[in-house]
């Protein structure tokens, strides 16, 4: 009966399996948003006993089951990779259009180990891209939080800031690229600004909404405690807005990665995007695939951190 | 009228005291409208220093509105509110900041040297010394409400406003809280304005019971029975009936049995001690 059990139980065991296989645990944001560590402890405590008796009932030792469950999740990706290898090595689809996984792997290794005149090294390009991302994201988040505080704390601030940000929100971000090139040239500046703008909008919207939806009862409690304005902001409003702001931060990361990819396609002379535009000219789909996989890995990594 | 009830007055009451004593709260002509509906209509109220006043009223009569106005939380009122001392409020829900530990919650906004020490002492008074470093969300309902009481009392208020602070607690916890509130009140002697739905709670705790109806105080009766009070005390039974009549729960000449929909005529010349079973059923 283990197969039937496998179908029925995965809900309780899935997080544990993910943790064991090194995949990001989806409740990372929840943990960040919870100020009281006790809450996490309670969650863990309630989850554990639910899983235990089922494991015991199956008659197999727990850890082995969890590992095998991790492998179950890899079956379809591996199958797809094998199929991919098959169709491109049998020339069903020309290798130039779809290079097989083995080729992609060799390309990745050579990009890392050799400094090619066309692409530089993969890790060097990664560093440039990461730096762009970090600078843009830092500027974007700082500006977004500052603006959200200004808009969130007073009607005057809201009237001054919010309409502008709402207009920016509706503008198609990547439609701005031509204008940015005219305004800021083709160097680092337009790229960083695009990333900053992409990161700022979701964070601003969520932080602003978070500040405005702080529990009014707690604000009243703060009032009768005689809190000064700064104390009220520090002890009641900002902590109350934090969970929503963190939701915004996660969205911001997603948009910022997207903005990085797009921004780097424009006249870059370094970075992952540069590798992609070079490879496009040389019709090297294997290099493009490597670059895309790097983007995916970086995105996964930041998602796991945030 | 029972002799121990020092002549409670009915009808429109001008609930004011002599000006020679400086009151803990003095309210004149308080009016509040919500969308054209007058919830408070020229209300007058005086609370003496150290006096424990309970205010009853059916739902929607503006008890909480009055309390919020006195606490300074409602800018939409007209009239005159004069509260010379510090005001502290304990709400129906504890309203502790979930991201601060209990001690930090009590010490928040406290303008004394060494606020943490003072807060710690206040937590000791409500029996929460060992929960000082706990997170508010890990407290039980009674503990959280005690922490809220400590947070209110640590400010040494001249007027303590209690907005149905026991209504969300279970019966046993509520009895313990009544005793605690009385003990704290006797020690610190703030004037107290307790808003409640619970007639028995008002009778057990207060020096004076008010009934709010039609935007004014329509009844004000002192409870001249020494504490600790027995709910079955004949004087309290009389006053309870009077209050229930004032609140429109029973009609003249009926006896309240606390059983919903079940009312018996008051037998002439007999006082029957009906024990309230309401709390135990809840």
Give structural notes.
The complex is a heterodimer of chains A (306) and B (282). Chain A is mainly α and 306 residues long. Chain A has 2 domains: 2-98, no CATH class; 122-305, MetI-like (MetI-like fold, Orthogonal Bundle). Chain A has 14 helices and no strands. Chain A has helices at 2-8, 10-20, 28-33, 37-58, 62-89, 101-113, 122-153, 155-170, 177-184, 188-212, 216-224, 229-264, 272-281, 285-305. In chain A, helix 7 runs antiparallel to helix 12. The two termini of chain A are 39 Å apart. Mean pLDDT of chain A is 80; it is low at 1-59. Chain B has 282 residues and is of the alpha/beta class. Chain B has a single domain (25-236), classed as Rossmann fold (3-Layer(aba) Sandwich). Chain B has a 6-stranded mixed beta sheet with strand order 5-6-7-3-8-9, sandwiched between helices. Chain B has a 3-stranded antiparallel beta sheet with strand order 2-1-4, with helices on one face. Chain B is globular and about 55 Å long. Chain A binds chain B through residues 35-36, 38-39, 217-218, 220-228, 231, 235-236, 239, 242, and chain B through 71-73, 87-89, 91, 93, 95, 97-100, 108-109, 111, 135, 137-138, 151, 155.
Summarize the helices and strands and which ones pair or pack:
The complex is a heterodimer of chains A (306) and B (282).
Chain A: H1 2-8, H2 10-20, H3 28-33, H4 37-58, H5 62-89, H6 101-113, H7 122-153, H8 155-170, H9 177-184, H10 188-212, H11 216-224, H12 229-264, H13 272-281, H14 285-305
Helix pairs in contact in A: 2-5, 6-14, 7-8, 7-10, 7-12, 7-13, 10-12, 12-14, 13-14
Chain B: E1 25-34, E2 37-47, E3 52-56, H1 63-70, E4 78-82, E5 87-90, H2 102-107, H3 115-125, H4 141-153, E6 159-163, H5 171-188, E7 191-195, H6 199-205, E8 208-213, E9 216-222, H7 234-246, E10 254-256, E11 263-265, H8 278-281
Parallel strand pairs in B: 3-7, 3-8, 5-6, 6-7
Antiparallel strand pairs in B: 1-2, 1-4, 8-9, 10-11
């Amino acid at each position: 009966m283990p197969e039937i059990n496998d179908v029925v139980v995965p809900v309780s065991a899935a997080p544990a399996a993910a943790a064991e296989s090194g995949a990001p645990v989806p409740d990372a944001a929840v943990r960040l948003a919870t100020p009281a560590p006790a809450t996490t402890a309670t969650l863990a405590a309630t989850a554990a006993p639910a899983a235990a008796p089922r494991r015991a009932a199956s008659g197999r030792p727990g850890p082995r089951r969890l590992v095998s469950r991790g492998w179950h999740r890899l079956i379809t990706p591996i199958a797809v990779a094998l199929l991919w290898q098959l169709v491109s090595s049998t020339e069903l689809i020309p290798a130039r259009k779809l290079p097989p996984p083995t080729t992609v792997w060799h390309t990745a290794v050579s990009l890392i180990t050799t400094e090619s005149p066309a692409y530089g090294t993969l890790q060097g390009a990664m560093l440039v891209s990461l730096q762009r991302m970090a600078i843009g994201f830092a500027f974007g988040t700082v500006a977004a939080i500052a603006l959200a505080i200004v808009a969130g704390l007073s009607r005057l601030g809201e009237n001054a800031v919010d309409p502008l940000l709402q207009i920016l929100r509706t503008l198609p971000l990547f439609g701005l690229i031509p204008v940015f090139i005219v305004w800021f040239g083709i160097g680092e500046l337009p790229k960083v600004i695009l990333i900053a703008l992409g990161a700022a909008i979701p964070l601003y919207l969520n932080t602003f909404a978070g500040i405005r939806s702080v529990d009014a009862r707690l604000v009243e409690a703060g009032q009768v405690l005689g809190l000064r304005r700064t104390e009220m902001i520090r002890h009641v409003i900002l902590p109350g807005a934090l969970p929503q702001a963190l939701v915004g931060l996660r969205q911001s990361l997603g948009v910022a990665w997207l903005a990085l990819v797009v921004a780097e396609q424009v006249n870059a002379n370094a970075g992952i995007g540069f590798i992609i535009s070079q490879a496009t000219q040389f019709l090297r789909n294997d290099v493009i695939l490597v670059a895309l996989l790097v983007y995916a890995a970086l995105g996964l990594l930041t998602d796991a951190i945030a | 009228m029972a002799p121990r009830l020092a002549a409670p007055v009915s009808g429109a009451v001008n609930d004011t005291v002599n000006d020679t004593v400086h009151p803990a709260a003095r309210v004149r002509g308080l009016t509040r409208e919500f969308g054209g509906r007058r919830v408070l209509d020229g209300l007058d109220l005086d609370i003496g220093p150290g006096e424990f006043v309970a205010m009853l009223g059916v739902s929607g009569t503006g008890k909480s509105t009055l309390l919020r106005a006195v606490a300074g939380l409602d800018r939409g009122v007209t009239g005159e509110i004069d509260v010379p001392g510090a005001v502290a409020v304990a709400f129906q829900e504890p309203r502790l900041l979930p991201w601060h530990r209990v001690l930090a919650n009590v010490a928040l906004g406290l303008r004394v040297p060494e606020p943490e020490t003072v807060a710690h002492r206040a937590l000791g008074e409500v029996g929460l010394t060992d929960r000082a470093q706990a997170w508010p969300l890990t407290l039980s309902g009674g503990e959280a409400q005690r922490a809220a009481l400590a947070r209110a009392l640590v400010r040494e208020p001249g007027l303590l406003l209690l907005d149905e602070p026991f209504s969300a607690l279970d019966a046993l916890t509520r009895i313990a809280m009544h005793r605690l509130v009385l003990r704290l009140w006797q020690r610190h002697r703030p004037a107290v304005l307790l808003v409640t739905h619970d007639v028995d709670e008002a009778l057990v705790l207060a020096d004076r019971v008010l009934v709010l109806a039609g935007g004014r105080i329509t009844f004000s009766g002192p409870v001249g029975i020494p504490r600790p009070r027995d709910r079955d005390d004949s004087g309290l039974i009389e006053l309870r009936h009077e209050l229930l009549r004032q609140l429109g729960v029973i009609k003249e000449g009926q006896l309240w049995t606390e059983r919903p929909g079940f009312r018996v005529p008051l037998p002439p010349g007999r006082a029957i001690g009906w024990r309230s079973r309401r709390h135990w059923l809840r």
